[in-house]
Automatic annotation (TrEMBL):
Residues 15-314 form the Histone deacetylase domain. The keyword Ion transport does not apply. This is Acetoin utilization protein AcuC. Transmembrane segments: none annotated. It comes from Actinoalloteichus hoggarensis.
């Protein structure tokens, strides 16, 4: 899903969520040959009825009013709707730009449901913090919720949402907290150390949907190997038990060790490994059907373009080797934009390993001596019994 109009979601030159990261990703993917002979689907704004079903009427009216060229920030916009803050400044065309992003995620879902593709990817999507009546965390409309809601309206009975952003996928969890048809899994930095402060292992879902909320909260400093160790000790077992008909993933890359807004320590190689794992999980547990969305990522020159070019490549079964050189033209363009930033020469952060960042990570052995293992143990104790799984059995 792509159109240059998606770059219109622009909160200002100094805002961390710069549309430049999308432009540089698409440039890198094109120049690397990842998008050769690929037909891009141009999204249209999300259907107004669908939008009104996931966001409050008063909030939608406020967003539209704040999108006008002469709109001013008023106290009630900030206090009631979260609009006009440092995180979510208002800007002309905000409603249109946000609706287009949501439309892109729904369009990707439609491509899959209508049989034109098994997988779809929308890197401009993944705005997972927006609540029904409030903007939050750089997110105005929640395109993840829009896509999942649309899928449910088409008759799907089990949709799994897997969020690997460094921040908790709170907006999606809130939307489906009481809905047993939707499994939300969020793998994020521990909420006591990072905004938004939610996503503890004991958040497991509402009445009638117990176990449909899974939160794997990792300690600051977790690297590729620790991330993979924790993920594989929890997520595949839960997905296998839930048996989703389609997998939706939010693929934020602010888990990277260079990201300025968080404290995990993954690499571009680790991100590549995550995407390959997500592809395997979609094949194993969702009939191969996979909708991949973007998300956070605030290193726009060195990290986001390479990580999401790997995402595009994996979705398209055109996996790039880590040692692949970044194209000279792309390097020159980045150097011109940011003369003081070291331009990555390859699609890897660490060519010493096997290209998957984590290498041959040790499987979880039931121990709790390491903070990562304690995180694993906490979520297994909270969720596994709700699926009839033994939280202490390493085979689960």
């Amino acid at each position: 899903m792509w159109d240059a109009d998606l770059l219109g979601y622009d909160m200002g030159a100094s805002h961390p969520l710069t549309p430049l990261r999308l432009d540089l990703t698409m440039r890198l993917a094109r120049e690397s040959g990842v998008l050769d002979e690929v037909s891009l689907v141009r999204p249209t704004p999300v259907d107004e009825t669908l939008l009104a079903g996931i966001h409050d009427h008063a909030y939608l009216a406020a967003v539209r009013a704040a999108s006008e060229p002469d709109a001013e920030v008023r106290p009630e916009l900030i206090a009631r709707f979260g609009l006009g803050t440092v995180d979510n400044p208002i800007f002309p065309g905000m409603h249109q730009a946000s609706a287009l992003i949501a439309g892109g995620s729904v369009a990707g879902a439609r491509e899959i449901i209508e049989g034109r593709a098994d997988r779809a990817v929308h890197i401009a999507g993944g705005l997972h913090h927006a609540m029904a009546g409030r903007a939050a965390g750089f997110c105005v409309y929640n395109d993840c919720v829009a896509a999942i809601t649309w899928l449910l309206e088409q008759g799907l009975e089990r949709v799994a949402y897997l969020d690997v952003d460094v921040h908790h996928g709170d907006g999606v969890q809130a939307a489906f907290h009481d809905d047993p048809r939707v499994l939300t899994v969020s793998v994020h930095q521990h909420p006591t150390t990072l905004w938004p402060g939610t996503g503890s292992p004991d958040e497991v879902g509402g009445p009638g949907a117990e176990g449909r909320t899974v939160n794997l909260a990792l300690p600051p400093g977790t690297d590729d190997a620790g991330w993979q160790r924790a993920f594989h000790a929890v997520v595949p077992s839960v997905l296998a038990a839930f048996e989703p008909q389609l997998l939706v993933t939010q693929c934020g890359v602010d888990t990277h060790r260079e990201d300025p807004l968080a404290d995990l320590a993954l690499t571009v190689d680790g991100h590549r490994a995550i995407y390959r794992t997500l592809r395997d999980l979609a094949r194993a547990h969702a009939g191969g059907r996979w909708l991949a969305l973007g998300g956070g990522g605030y290193s726009p020159y060195r990290v986001v373009p390479r990580s999401w070019t790997h995402l595009l490549a994996v979705v398209l079964d055109r996996d790039l080797r880590p040692e692949t050189a970044t194209p000279a033209g792309w390097q020159a363009h980045v150097a011109e934009l940011a003369p003081d930033v070291p331009v990555p020469a390859t699609m890897s952060d660490d060519l010493r390993g096997d290209g998957d960042g984590a290498g041959s990570f040790p499987a979880w052995d039931g121990g709790v001596s390491h903070p990562v293992d304690r995180a694993v143990s906490a979520v297994r104790r909270a969720v596994f019994p709700l699926y009839g799984l033994d939280p202490h059995d390493r085979r689960d």
